[in-house]
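Reviewers of the previous submission asked for a worked example of the structure-prediction workflow described in the proposal, so we include one complete record here. The input consisted solely of the amino acid sequence. No template or homolog information was supplied to the procedure at any stage.
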Amino acid sequence: MRKVLIIGKCARVDCIADALTTNKSEKELYGFSEFKNIGLIEKCEDLRTGDTESVKEVIRYAHEVKPDFVIVGSEEPLDAGVVDALTKQGVPCVGPTKALAQLESSKAFTRNLLSKYEIPGNLKYRAFKSSDGLESYLKSLGEFVVKPDGLTGGKGVKIHGEHLHSIADGLRYSEELFEAGHEAVVIEEKLIGEEFSFQSFCDGWHVVDTIPVQDHKRAFDGDTGPNTGGMGSYSCQDHLLPFLSRDHVKQASRINRAVAQALREEFGAEYKGILYGGFMATKSGIRVLEYNARFGDPEVMNTLPLLKADFMDICEAIINGTLDKMQVVFEEKATVCKYVVPENYPDKNGQDKLVDVPETLKSSDRLKIYYAAVDKQSDGLYLTGSRAIACVGIGDTLKEAEQIAEKAAGSVRGPVRHRKDIGTDALVQKRMDHMREILGMEESFSQIGTVGAQC
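From that input alone, the workflow returned the following structure tokens.
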């Protein structure tokens, strides 16, 4: 009997638990989360609610459960040092220590790491601890991106021309970040291209890649509205994306491997967990936007449902440093994830309201339903103000996967909404046309054709 404790929040941890249930050996799953997540309730022997960033609470529950290992699914517990405390107690973890998790918790650290170890894909950047010199650097870049040096749930980045429209706007937002308590603000050059996520398993020495996924941060259809934690995502059956070449993916893979090696050299310690690079395909090749120290949410939901290898075995290989012995294969299917969210999301006004999920909305081979920030109470399922339910369609083509996800997301009733355009031919074609424009019509790029031919 193997016991696994999963720590974290959102649909990501429900997806992780689901992947672990496919293991045929005897096992018991336990969850520690902020809400009574119905997905975890159904899959775990026990679900304890509490503060996932509280080292004391996590250790107390781990002493009760006595797990064989722990999976830390969210970034906040990593930054709080939960893995450090569990490791001292002799409990192995899938997730990096606090120092190694700076890869996500400090954008300045990551930029400096890429620079120090001469890892390809870095940007022009400077980290500021005050406003001194900030205005002149913004002017020198022309177009820029402002990032808080800390965790913001994917909502802190603001881009010139989209959220900020002048040097004054950039200065004003930077001042707001300092006043909010951020020790530093990172100013970067603005890139033009198409973003994608590339997640890899890492045991400190060996890196095993998953598949590229494209996330959609903007709140509303047509890529409008404020940034969110992610409204949905898609992947294609050929394990590329319509605007990516095989060489693009190889570049991203090499960068992930170089980062793993750099972390080991920098700290003399092994990074054990998920290396999640946020990349952009540009005219000059692959560039690094950011790094995360855990699975993406929603990107994990495009990835783990296609995994043909045993996820339990992969987790143990990460802990034992034997990933190179694993045969990791993914089904050649397309996936589309659409998040059902409170109608006012990303504002928090949608909390404490009932949501009606039809009894027929259940997971199958073609549809996965993962629960996020919802709270199960005696009279039903309540919204908590953040993303609520992820509907993941799985099909032989992107069109088929999108139709499955759309039908599922549209069946959820209540004060909720979702982006209807994610995974549609029109939006994917828009991405492809954008990349073709960036590369220049005179340049041949065989990967870019039509949506139907690619996905």
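The chain has 15 helices and 21 strands. We consider this example representative of the routine output the project will generate in years two and three.
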